[in-house]
């Protein structure tokens, strides 16, 4: 693609017509911003599409059921995927700082995720029962750890290659574009024209290729070498990262807000379980329709959330928290009146919650990148992700609460968490208003 075409596409997406905006990035990176901006969109879009095709909450849980794996393995899918992608970051961040160009670490992580996805597809074709469950969990763990490497370096690379007030647009556009492809996958699953197991295995293979393609493309970014200070003993660095909590009030408030907003990720399984009607399950329980609902929310909201995050990531977090609260309270209200068992109710509340979830994802990423400096960005990312990983792992407690007190109590607690996130998030600074 020629430079002129790159500039035109860049201006079309960003609505930039009054001179190129270059804030909070090295001056030498300004001329490469259109190319880097579009490289981020395509690379991130490919990996987000792969994420949707391999979604542990939906796709892999269905796959393990079809392969006859014990329920214990199905229950491990989300904790392994989420905690495995977050917990290692506190210990790997310092080592990754030794790399002046961190795009290579992101690319390596993406390539390993691709290999793991292809391995899962092979297991689906060759294994059954316990063997299939154990092998897929191990490969998912490998994928999660590789993802942690990409995650801890991505925000740093984004901060060096794309200007402030453009970062949310890049990530939001990527999420919206990927949602289109995942919706097509969901439509194929829901259509009944294809054998679902064959289609899921094919999707896993496609996901693997997408991760590998993204690894190559991301390596072409024009990334200015950055600071390498801090590449030291991982345990010592982890302790020093934890000490950041005592020094930065805004970091503590951001992590508290993000921690409360894990409610948006934990709630969907409980919402589905609360609907006891077989009719509702038939209407919305199909794998294809679940995928369509989740991706449809991303398609309709991600670009909008991303653009708004470039103006105020603080407001995105607050609005998302309020939207999640309304969705969860509506779920309880519909259940109390007996309407949750109707065909439309459960799809609607889950769809609206997923819109809030997309806002949380984009708002937290943009806020962290814009809040931190080049020197603190990796440490802040690793620390916040590790703490959230611990909280997600502890989220299994909600299953025990559901057994003892009931699903409606769990959803009520998650609604209170979302509401509290809006209150705590109101104290965050408007980091996009700061100078470069």
Structural account:
With 436 residues, the protein is mostly helical. The chain has a single domain, classed as Growth Hormone, Chain: A, CATH 1.20.1250. Helices cover 78% and strands 0% of the residues. The chain has 18 helices and no strands. About 2% of the residues have low confidence.
Task: Give a quick summary of the entry.
The chain has 436 residues and is mainly alpha-helical. Helices cover 78% and strands 0% of the residues. The protein has one domain (32-433): MFS general substrate transporter like domains (Growth Hormone, Chain: A), CATH 1.20.1250.
* Name of the top-level CATH class: Mainly Alpha
CATH fold assignment: Growth Hormone, Chain: A
Q: What is the number of beta strands?
A: 0
Low-confidence stretches: 276-285
Helix count, DSSP H or I runs of 4 or more residues: 18
How much of the sequence lies in strands comes to under 5%
CATH level-two architecture: Up-down Bundle
**How would you describe the shape?**
globular
- Supply Rg: 21 Å
State the domain count.
Answer: 1
CATH H-level superfamily? MFS general substrate transporter like domains
What is the H-and-E element order?
HHHHHHHHHHHHHHHHHH
Q: Largest sheet at a glance?
A: none
């Amino acid at each position: 693609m020629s430079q002129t075409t790159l500039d035109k596409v860049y201006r079309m997406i960003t609505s930039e017509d009054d001179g190129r905006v270059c804030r909070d990035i090295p001056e030498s990176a300004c001329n490469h911003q259109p190319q880097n901006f579009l490289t981020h969109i395509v690379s991130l879009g490919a990996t987000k599409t792969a994420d949707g095709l391999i979604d542990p909450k939906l796709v892999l849980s269905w796959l393990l059921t079809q392969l006859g794996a014990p329920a214990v393995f199905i229950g491990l899918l989300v904790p392994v995927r989420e905690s495995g992608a977050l917990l290692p970051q506190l210990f790997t961040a310092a080592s990754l700082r030794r790399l002046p160009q961190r795009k290579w670490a992101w690319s390596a992580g993406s390539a390993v995720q691709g290999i793991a996805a292809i391995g899962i597809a092979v297991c689906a074709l060759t294994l059954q029962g316990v063997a299939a469950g154990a092998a897929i969990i191990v490969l998912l763990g490998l994928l999660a750890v590789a993802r942690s490497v990409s995650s801890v370096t991505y925000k740093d690379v984004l901060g060096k290659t794309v200007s402030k007030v453009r970062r949310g647009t890049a990530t939001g556009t990527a999420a919206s574009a990927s949602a289109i492809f995942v919706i097509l996958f969901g439509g194929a699953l829901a259509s009944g024209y294809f054998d679902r197991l064959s289609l899921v295995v094919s999707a896993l293979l496609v996901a693997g290729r997408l991760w590998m393609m993204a690894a190559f493309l991301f390596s072409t970014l024009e990334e200015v070498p950055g600071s390498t200070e801090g590449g030291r003993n991982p345990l010592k660095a982890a302790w020093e990262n934890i000490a950041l909590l005592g020094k930065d009030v805004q970091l503590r408030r951001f992590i508290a807000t993000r921690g409360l907003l894990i409610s948006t990720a934990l709630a969907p399984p409980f919402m589905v379980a609360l609907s006891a009607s077989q009719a509702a399950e038939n209407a919305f329980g199909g794998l294809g329709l679940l995928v369509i609902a989740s991706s449809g929310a991303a398609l309709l909201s991600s670009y909008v959330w991303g653009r708004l995050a470039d103006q105020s990531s603080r407001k995105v977090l607050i609005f998302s928290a309020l939207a999640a609260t309304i969705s969860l309270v509506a779920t309880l209200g519909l259940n109390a009146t007996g309407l949750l068992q109707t065909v439309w109710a459960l799809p609607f509340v889950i769809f609206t919650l997923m819109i809030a979830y997309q806002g949380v994802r984009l708002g937290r990423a943009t806020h962290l990148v814009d809040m931190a400096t080049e020197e603190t960005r990796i440490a802040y990312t690793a620390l916040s992700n590790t703490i959230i990983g611990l909280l997600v792992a502890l989220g299994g407690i909600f299953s025990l609460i559901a057994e003892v007190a009931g699903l409606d109590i769990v959803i009520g607690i998650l609604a209170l968490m979302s509401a509290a996130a809006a209150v705590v998030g109101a104290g965050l600074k408007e980091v996009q208003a700061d100078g470069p």
